[in-house]
């Protein structure tokens, strides 16, 4: 989440991305960041033993945390003078990435592999 925060709050306008441009590439980045955050968060919490008996609750919690975190980051972009702008489509991409990550980890993940 620190990585996402740093990439979301600081401007990289001076960084050259020559040869790497396609429409809405930033939305894809938002989707991927939050997808990975939810998958890693759910797996990490499951490994630490929290809520292993109810993996659905764990996944929903991680998804909700990620969505709220994304909204807070966009709010910070709106009020802070770092050269970044808040965007509702970024919130949508963040949320969609979090939801898809949660759905995939629930469907294909093995959060209940250890017996209790």
Description:
The protein is mostly helical and 116 residues long. It has a domain at 37-116. The chain has helices at residues 2-9, 25-47, 55-79, 88-108. The chain is globular, with a radius of gyration of 16 Å.
**How much of the residues is beta strand, in percent?**
under 5%
SS content category = mainly alpha
Residue windows where pLDDT falls under 50 for at least 5 positions: none
What Rg is obtained from the alpha carbons, in whole angstroms?
A: 16 Å
Most strands sheet: none
First-last Cα distance: 30 Å
Distinct helical segment count: 4
How much helical structure, as a percent, in the residues?
55-70%
**What is the overall silhouette?**
globular
Q: What would the average pLDDT be, to the nearest integer?
A: 81
Total strands: the figure is 0
> Element order, helices and strands?
HHHH
Characteristics of this structure?
globular, 4 helices, mainly alpha, single chain, 116 residues
